[in-house]
Chalcone isomerase domain-containing protein
Amino acid sequence: MTIYLRMAQCLARTWLAATVSMILLFVGFSASASSYWQSWQTVGRAELSWGFWEIYDSELRTPDGTYSFDQQELALVIRYRRDIDEEDLLEATDKQWIHLGIPQSMRKQWLRELSIIWPDVKKGDRLIFVLNAQGAAFYQGNRLLGKVESEEMAKAFLGIWLSPQTAYPEMRRRLIG
């Protein structure tokens, strides 16, 4: 009986060690997957102000620090300088998409998706939109908020800042260098 008890204890320790190793491996992989863009070079920076209010700072990053219209890898980092609730973020996004001529049916679908992903933001929070060969995703700091399945939606979101038809051409100029 003693030998079976020792074997069971040994098996339990081995299982626990394997489980802990897998958890650490997964956590390490998730952290590196969400932050690899941080080593990318800055293309440009811009600030959005409205009257006396500073809304956010934005930064565009790419692997080599240059931007082209058909860029496949980039990160748009937005650091909020004030609290903004999710509903206001969605409303502002919709207004920009209207300005860019995005059809209502697409806007509604995409805004529903974003309403699931986006949180309320507090002063100092960073929302990051990362586009790469695997797709696109939103992060808050290093935490994955959600993935964007539609390439068209990803391009429309980036178009708010990067499209030649943006409502903020000076911001675009500063971001793309």
